[in-house]
Every structure is written in structure tokens, then in C-alpha cells.
Design goal:
Shape: globular
Number of domains: 4
Number of strands: 25
Largest sheet: 8 strands, mixed
Number of helices: 13
CATH architecture of the largest domain: 3-Layer(aba) Sandwich
Radius of gyration: 25 Å
Strand content: 25-35%
Structural class: alpha/beta
């Protein structure tokens, strides 16, 4: 099978992913004059000296966002016009002012109201990521405040520099009175998948540490690509938001892209279930919706698809439609959206509903409120659990399908589980019967956060482990080197960070304990691979290399990934709906031409 479809792994030459002809994202910027380039370079050097001196300060990320925005724009040539050039110069001035204030023990921006830009250090790769805030005048009155998130739309030029420009000057589409409004960067334009998803919750957590936030009144909004992100985050984390307000976006990748199922390999049709919200609609029983569409917007399809999916589950959907409006908010619709959302904000998030309806296809997203699905009969086939607590709170009735283990936040005197009467808070299936407690087994099992596919490893801290030895053959060595270089480049381009890379002879115990290991090379060239090769499920041949994710034999609470970064690449960047996994748990790749010769998912015991 030669990988030519945009829904397969990327086209390869000599085992290396090909780039799209003439397509570079972000695109090249304008040519700077020698004078402008010198001014930026010198200003950046001066700012770097000041920020480096404060690197151990907890507020250093609030300085680094300025330095990084200018440094990366210079390095990658992504200043696009005179306005952005002026912004770069302004950022150097503002960053310098912050650094000089912090050196004197002051941090006035932390008490600033209005538009503020802040930053945090990500757990994934130790990169600094920015976000924008609108801080109300009463933010420091000692009371907890509502927090609204707004997920941004697609912008191929949305570098850190242009993002900071927007967030320093524009309050955005919605500014609810008394609310903080958070604009996550989302690590560029990826529909808040993988690191873009992690960015949302890391930014929220940082805001919660810096400001008084009412966790029962967090509202999720977004439009266009941000609408797609809002659908995705609402169905996967239905218990986090007091309400969600998606506008436009995408909900069914095949329909949105006008494709036919036959065009997509079977394993990728299964993987589309990871992000397609139509497959998760019942979870919105726990998350109130206020949906917006322009009447003549092609992306109204997302709302129509979700309305049908919700109706099939017997769930309502408030749908506000901008009359004769294309891909934008109608001015008369915005107050209607706000009024509907305000009703849910007044009520607040339902922390402990008496009834929960939860569906999932993967243990990555398998929780709602007090109900957790902790084992599946088979990944990528629908699993459901519906639980209803008694009025006195002493008993609960649960009906399941496709579930092999589950947990409750607290124990009940009586648990009616698929007709069996049990007690406790954790349960597992033994054959066709349920038992109380946790499954005791020495064999590996897929579990939440350790279930694949390959891309899942990049949602937690990870490090690349590069080989220092000599590969089995020069062809194997060249393939691994180029594949790793491509993965490093892809991460920087699409997730705006620089991967932590360690030599195979310098991997630390702390990294083994706390990070997923992305191992490159083969057992001959990479000593970490060599030490665990007998415990891995796939091997190398003279013609092929394995690509897979697996529990780390050195620490089974973390992953190892062999010879792969995330599995979509920039030739698919024409639509962020396509920024989804393109390979499952494992594959073998022919090094001569990059063809996948075998591909598949591991079973629930991590076996082929």
C-alpha cells in the first residue's frame, strides 16, 4: 500500500514524509530591510540578557512570551507586513519594561485590568506558551469570577507575534460584564488537538492560580476552527464547563470534507471517532449548549449534524441562526447568545448530577462527573454507561455496553450493575459477570492514559531519545535520522515548541519515571531500544522498521513510541479537521519507499 490519500500516513520517499509542493505553513514573511533586521536583532539580544537573568523567577514566562515571539519570527521569517514589524518592536519595548520591573521586585501586569498577555511553561516540552486575557475592573475585589474561553479560528499566519498583537489590542467577540475572558493560543492552528488541547487546560489552570476564578462558572466558546474545537472539548470534557457555545466549525469529518468512507482506510475511519463530536453527542446531557450558525454559512453543517445526533439521543439543542449571514456572527444574534448563556452561568455547573449518560470509543476520554469508564471490551467500538443515583444517594443503578471496568467517585451501599447487586466504588468484568474491586492481573491492560494510538503519547510530557550507536545498516540509520528530523520540525511548526532531546546514553531515571520516551533508531544504534528489544511487540527486518506505541518496559505507567512523532503532517494542513491520527497503535514501514506493509491496533491486553 503506497500512502497517497490525505487520510493515510503522509506520502514518503525513502521512508521520509514528503512536504506538499509549494505549501509552507506558516508561509514565508516579507523581506526585512538591513536596518530593521539589525534593530530587531540588537533589541532581541538586549532583552534576552534581561530575561535570562530572571529565568528562575516564577513570572519568567510572562517575559519570555515577548522574547520568543520576536526571536521565532526572526528565525523563521514570519513577519508579514509593516504592522507586524511595528508590533515586533513594541514587544521588545514591553518585554524590556516587564523584565526591568521584575528585576526590581515589581510585576504590575499581574494586577492590570483590561487586555493582558501572560505565559506559562508547558508540561509537554517545557516550552513557554502565551495566552491573552480580558481582565474586568472588579477582578481583584476578592470575589470569585466567571471565566469565558474563546477558541480562535484558523489563521495560517497566526504566529506568537501576531497572536500577541491581537490579544494586546482586541477584546474579542464577547466581553461579558464582570467575567475574565481567556483566549488560548492553542499552540497555533490545530483545532486544539493533541498539544493544542493540552494548552487549553494548562492555560485555564494558570489563570486559576493567578486570579480568583469560579470553577462552577467556566464557559466555553469558539467560532470556525474554534467552533470545531468547542464541539470537541465539550463532548470530551462535559463535566468541566457550565455551558458551551460553538459557532460554525466541523462535527463529522467525512461529511465536512465531502468524502466517501471508501476513500479512507478502515483503521483511519476508526480513528476519526477520536475527535468527531457526532459520535459523542450523548455526553452533552451533562453540558448545556447554545449553538450559533450563519444562515448561509457552509459550516452550519456542523450544527445540523449535531442537532440530528442529539435528537437521536433525545437531547435538546438551542440553535441561534444569524439571518442571511455567512461565516460570521450576526450583530443581533450576539445578545441572544449571551442571554442564553447567562442563564446557565447563574445556575452554575452541575457538580454532581443524579443521572449521567456517558459514551466513549477510547479510554482517553472516559469520564463524566462521578462516573469513570476504566476498561473497554474493545477500543474504537462504542462503549456506554448510564448511571442514576437514588434520591437518598445510597444506591445507584448502572447499565453498560462495551464496558469491562468502571469506577465511581465514592462507594454506594447498593450498586445495581447490569442487573447484578454489588457494593463498592470499583468494578470489573470477569467473563460475563461483574465483580467488585480492581482486576488483579500480571498481564498488561489498556487503561485511561495508556491506551494508544501513537499520537496519544504527545498529550503528556515526552522526550526524544536519539541513538549514539551504529545502526543495523546505513539505510536503517539514514531513515531514523531523517524521520526524527521531520518529527522535530513538525512539532516546532504545528505545536510551537522545541522537543527535549537526549542521547540514549544520557537518559535519566527522572525522565524514565515522568516522561513518555520517543525512541529513534534500532536496537543496534539506540542502547535504550537494545536493552528492551526482547520485551517489545515488533521487530526490525532488513527491509522494514516498526512504528508503534507500547507501555514502557522500564516503567509501565508511561509509553514508549518507536520511530514516530505525531502522525499527521503539514501536507494535510488545508483543513484542521484533518489534524487527526493517521496511524493506529502499530505499523511496519518499508524503508526503501515508505510504504506501510502492515498496520493495526493492539488488543486490550496490548497484544497484536
Amino acid at each position: 500500500m503506497n500512502l497517497l490519500s490525505p487520510f493515510q500516513a503522509p506520502p514518503m520517499r525513502n521512508g521520509i514524509p514528503l512536504q506538499p509542493a509549494g505549501k509552507v505553513i506558516p508561509p514565508p514573511g516579507m523581506a526585512l530591510t538591513p536596518g530593521d533586521k539589525t534593530a530587531l536583532t540588537e533589541g532581541l539580544a538586549a532583552l534576552t540578557l534581561k530575561t535570562d537573568a530572571l529565568k528562575k523567577h516564577t513570572l519568567w514566562p510572562d517575559l519570555e512570551i515577548y522574547r520568543k515571539a520576536v526571536a521565532w519570527s526572526l528565525e523563521l521569517n514570519t513577519i508579514y507586513n509593516a504592522r507586524e514589524l511595528a508590533t515586533a518592536k513594541e514587544l521588545l519595548v514591553e518585554g524590556t519594561a516587564r523584565a526591568e520591573a521584575l528585576a526590581k521586585g515589581a510585576a504590575p501586569w499581574t494586577k492590570q485590568t483590561g487586555l493582558v498577555v501572560r505565559g506559562y511553561i508547558s508540561k509537554l516540552d517545557s516550552s513557554v506558551q502565551p495566552y491573552g486575557l480580558l481582565v474586568p475592573e472588579n477582578a481583584f475585589d476578592g470575589q470569585k469570577h466567571r471565566l469565558d474561553l474563546f477558541m480562535h479560528g484558523r489563521g495560517e499566519n497566526l504566529t506568537e507575534l501576531s497572536f500577541l498583537e491581537q490579544r494586546r489590542k482586541s477584546a474579542g467577540e464577547f466581553t461579558p460584564p464582570g467575567a475574565l475572558v481567556l483566549h488560548p493560543y492553542g499552540r497555533f492552528c490545530n483545532a486544539n488537538h493533541i498539544a493544542g488541547e493540552v494548552d487549553v487546560f494548562e492555560a485555564v489552570a494558570h489563570v486559576q492560580r493567578q486570579y480568583k476564578i469560579d470553577s462552577e462558572r467556566i464557559v466555553l466558546r469558539g467560532f470556525s476552527m474554534g467552533g470545531g474545537a468547542t464541539w470537541h472539548l465539550a463532548v470530551h470534557y462535559p463535566d468541566f464547563w457550565c455551558a458551551a457555545a460553538p459557532g460554525a466549525g466541523f462535527a463529522d469529518t467525512i461529511r465536512f470534507s465531502n468524502l466517501k468512507e471508501a476513500q479512507i482506510p478502515g483503521w483511519q475511519r476508526k480513528l476519526l471517532r477520536l475527535y468527531d463530536p457526532v459520535d459523542w453527542a450523548v455526553n452533552l446531557a451533562q453540558c448545556p449548549l447554545v449553538v450559533y450558525s450563519g444562515e448561509i454559512d457552509g459550516q452550519k453543517l456542523a450544527a445540523d449534524d449535531m442537532a440530528a445526533a442529539l435528537q437521536a439521543e433525545g437531547l435538546p439543542m438551542t440553535h441561534i441562526i444569524g439571518p442571511n449571514t455567512g461565516h460570521s456572527y450576526h450583530k443581533d444574534s450576539k445578545p441572544l447568545i449571551n442571554a442564553e448563556l447567562d442563564k446557565f452561568v447563574v445556575r452554575g455547573r452541575e457538580k454532581s448530577p443524579s443521572k449521567i449518560r456517558l459514551t466513549t470509543w477510547t479510554l482517553r476520554y472516559a469520564k463524566s462527573n462521578w462516573l469513570h469508564i476504566t476498561g473497554l471490551e474493545k477500543h474504537w467500538e462504542r462503549a456506554r454507561a448510564e448511571a442514576e443515583r437514588s434520591g437518598d444517594g445510597k444506591s445507584v443503578t448502572i447499565k453498560t455496553s462495551g464496558v469491562s471496568a468502571l469506577a465511581l467517585d465514592s462507594g454506594f451501599r447498593t450498586v445495581n450493575l447490569d442487573g447484578q447487586i454489588l457494593s463498592g466504588a470499583k468494578f470489573y468484568k470477569d467473563g460475563k459477570s461483574w465483580k467488585s474491586g480492581e482486576r488483579r492481573s500480571k498481564t498488561l491492560r489498556k487503561k485511561p492514559g495508556l491506551q494508544g494510538p501513537i499520537d496519544d503519547a504527545f498529550m503528556e510530557r515526552f522526550v526524544f531519545v536519539q541513538p549514539t550507536g551504529i545502526a543495523k545498516s546505513s539505510e536503517h540509520g539514514a531513515w531514523a535520522k531523517k524521520a526524527m528530523e521531520q518529527a522535530l520540525s513538525d512539532w516546532k511548526t504545528f505545536f510551537r515548541g522545541e522537543v527535549v532531546v537526549v542521547d540514549d546514553d544520557r537518559l535519566t531515571g527522572e525522565q524514565i519515571r515522568n516522561a513518555n520516551l520517543i525512541l529513534w533508531g534500532d536496537p543496534a544504534s539506540n542502547r535504550v531500544l537494545g536493552n528492551m528489544a526482547s520485551k517489545l511487540p515488533l521487530g526490525w527486518t532488513s527491509e522494514t522498521v516498526p512504528v508503534f506505541i507500547y507501555p514502557n518496559p522500564l516503567n509501565e505507567s508511561k509509553y514508549v513510541v518507536v520511530n514516530s512523532g505525531f502522525t499527521w503532517h503539514d501536507y494535510m494542513s488545508g483543513s484542521n479537521a484533518h489534524h487527526t491520527p493517521k496511524l493506529p497503535d502499530w505499523a511496519t514501514v518499508r524503508i526503501s519507499d515508505g510504504a506501510v506493509t502492515e498496520v493495526g491496533f493492539f488488543d486490550e491486553s496490548w497484544k497484536r
